[in-house]
Amino acid sequence: MKNLIISTSIILSIVLVACEKENFFEGDHFFVRSAGAEMPVYVKGNIQSGIFILFLHGGPGGNASLPSFMPVSKELEKDYAFAYWDQRGSGLSMGNPDASSFTVEQFVDDLDLVVETIKLRYHNPRLIFYGISWGGALGSAYLSTLNYQEKVAGFICMDSGHNLMVGLPKSVEFVKEYAQKQIDQGIDAAYWTEARDWCATVPDMTKKENYFKYDSYLTNTNAYRKDPNQEVQGPEVGALGTMHSYLSLAVFFNGQYLVPRFNILELNLSADMLRIKTPTLVIWGRNDGVNTIEMGYDAFNSIGGPDFQEKELVILENSAHEGYIEEQELFIRTFRRFVNNL
Prior knowledge:
This is Alpha/beta fold hydrolase. It holds the Pfam family Abhydrolase_1. The protein is α/β, with parallel strands linked by helices. It folds into 2 domains: about 30-165 and about 235-340, Rossmann fold, CATH 3.40.50; about 175-220. It is about 40% helix and about 15% strand. It has 13 helices and 9 strands. Helix 3 packs across helix 4 and helix 5 (about 165-185) packs antiparallel against helix 6.
């Protein structure tokens, strides 16, 4: 009898979890298969609008699955359809892609398959790229390749890592200045003295070991969020919610294989971005320490060149790298205004 009760409890738990999963997802989904990778695309929001926002997540090695549960996403989904694509080696993507496929060119090819699938599956909707950090770089690489930009109606480029050759040394300088401020305030002086002195050596940021050393310091600064103590609205799904949705714990670990094998430390797309003639909104956090404000100006000036008029730069004065949650209301207003005016 005891075993029967336990078995019944397990079955009931499974049924309840299965029922709860339905509450976490309303929409459509499909997989795109490319060069050994099987990549999910989850479509949520106002599909009837005929306007699809293709979210290009950061990283490399981040994911689009968790951002799809953020309140800012849910608010914008009232107006537009959002397509959340987990890139190869990232998020909930599957398959067994060879490390040799971890190139910018392959990611661009993958993205083109996603674009073509959305256009075919949803009867050629208006498609707008929304890329954050590495996602902004990927969007820039795609739009400057062949005639691909003809397939896209607009581009929202946020805190893009499009030129790491120039941008990473500026971020190292950010870490050095932050370290000095901590030393001056007597905060963990030994650690920050080590960080400051290392940054002062002007390390070669094209070397992986230097990048990972720098990144270990960067994550302890306010590079990502101007006020690390600010209360923000993150994904409305935690570890328990992950078990009650289509998510899995793989979303937290999948990118660990990709990151050390996808070397973009010499990435420099600034010259290529001159070819982009797609209407573009560049959004940047004034206090971004990952991709500093100088790189925001570089992105804006590079896209389409100096004579291109269909572009706009919006600076979020009270944000760092996560302005979409640091200044959520301003971000949403800016996003809607740009999309609705296309």
